[in-house]
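Blinded run. Sample ID left blank on purpose so nobody reads anything into the name before looking at the predicted structure. Input follows.
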Amino acid sequence: MAHYIKSLFKFNKHNVNYSKGIRQGLLMLTPLLLGYLLGYFQFGLLIATGTLANIYVFGGSDKSKLRILWWCAVGFALCITFGTLTVATPLLFGILLLLVTVVAYYIFSALEIPGPSATFFIVTFALPINMPIAPEQALTRGVFVFIGGIFALAVVAILLKLQEKNTQERAIEAEYQSLLKLVKEYADSEKFKKNTEQLVNQFKSTDKQLITSFTSNKKQSEQLHRLYLLHNNAEGIFAELLELKTKEVETLPDVLIEMMQYIERSVSSRLEEQEIMQWREKIELPVSFQRLEKQIYRTDEILHSPTGQIEYEANLRQPLYGQQLKYNLTLDSLVLMNTLRYSMIMGAAIFIALMFDFDKAYWIPLTAHTILIGTNTIHSMERAVARTIGTFIGVFLLTVILSLHPHMIVSIIVLALSATITEVIIGANYAIAMIFITTQVIMLNGLASGKLSILIALPRVVDVVIGVIIAVIGLLILGRKNASQTLPDAIAEVVRYEMSFFYYVFSRNEHLAKQAPKFNELKLRIKLSNMNSMYQNAHGELFADSTKISAYYPIIFALEEISFMLSRAQNNPKPQTIDDVVMGQYLIAFEGIATHFEQHVPLYQGTGLPSLPQYTNIRTALLNIQQYARLRNSDKIGDPQ
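Blinded prediction complete.
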């Protein structure tokens, strides 16, 4: 037990974020102090509430950071407006609060937006509980909260403008640094495998950043085109390295390593707008390395190509948020499954809070929500304990402060300081951050009601305990083994979709080659994301066998590799096709694997698969999956059910 409590307070120094914490503290302090000094404190408080949008600024492209800030500002404004209009009617207030939380939770989950999910949408919607009932002020309150959100957006935009390199440039640099590391450690199979897994995740992250960076601004668009081509070429170099490994090439020529060192330096210099020299040395390599050599030279071409040529070659993709939301509305989607579970537990929390007329009733659903946004069931349980301990300490700390009857300016500073510390350490330790989250939210509500006393702090302990109990009971009933039971079906679905993709890319069907649009990679990315999420959730279920779940990892990674290679093949202007006999053998292999996972049908030893003219790593990945599937069949790896 002592070890468990110690783990709850383990502090990860690498996740401390001083800049974001200081920014959040100043964003809240500025309107609060100005409002107080100018005699418009309530307006200053509303603007400070709007600046909570800054909390949602996490990783991602600069464009996506500003986009999320904008929509949070709009969302917060709507929340406080509707909260003000309905606060006098508990039933309507409860229904709208549930709708707000569920919709926000689904959007954040489906679009894979990191952060506190619907947390501060609940806070802003419920803030009118602490304010005078005044439906006629609904629009005014909404406007001032929106101003706060825009204030946060403006500050973040200025800071992003002042940084030397944007997020996308740093991501491209990191890709080429990782490629150089992969090339240097090519001969070490274990290190190569580890670096490969890291690079696949890097490529997915960078791809998402570049898509969400789409802009109509001409200057920014020129830069984005070059970054996109550099990213695409990095994937090409990676694909060629995988091909060489598949063909059992054990070492790389030293000159290729030198070329990669030159390319890595050139990419960094180009992004820093420094003068760079082109590679002039002529080299002669064996035929087996010439495609990799050509791909490396291609990087040099991209770095030195004029803007017009870059724009002609790059084919930027726009973010398809609507389609992402739509494709996750299926019964086999973990996002939808979690949203349904979330809505039932939150509905129960809101019903109990309003039915029994708790003072500041929103604290119960707010507590339940913060537990439910854990990455899996075990993580949610840990958050429940952390929230309980953190709240108790936070309430005690705030009780001591309020017993001293602090001046209004001191109270404002305590609120801003709590916001600062929260954002500095929230990534390092949730339990410790919970102490300051408690003081921050209680102080915010106390200032809104104009009643700063011990009486606003102590009842929150009861609310938190009730919220924790509701969430934990809900998770025990509804969150037992959902992910581990559905993981094999998710794998089968990915396999079948990749089978269709494979046929689309390598078939000699002229209609597919000339007339049909490109294969829908977005659907495949969503299915892969769903599969990975199920794997992570299955690991965190209370009664699942972690060892058996872990056995799925090499299969999942092999499917990621196949997806990567198929995407490369689709973007190849002249892919080499295969005849119907070879195609049939591959389709049978795909279907056999899918049926094995879906219906637990044994996968018997086959005769192997013929080689592919290109992208031979697809064959290797399929054979690896078959091998692991046969291990499952021989009971070396069992089902997690």
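Unblinding after everyone has recorded impressions. Residues 218-246 form the longest helix (29 residues).
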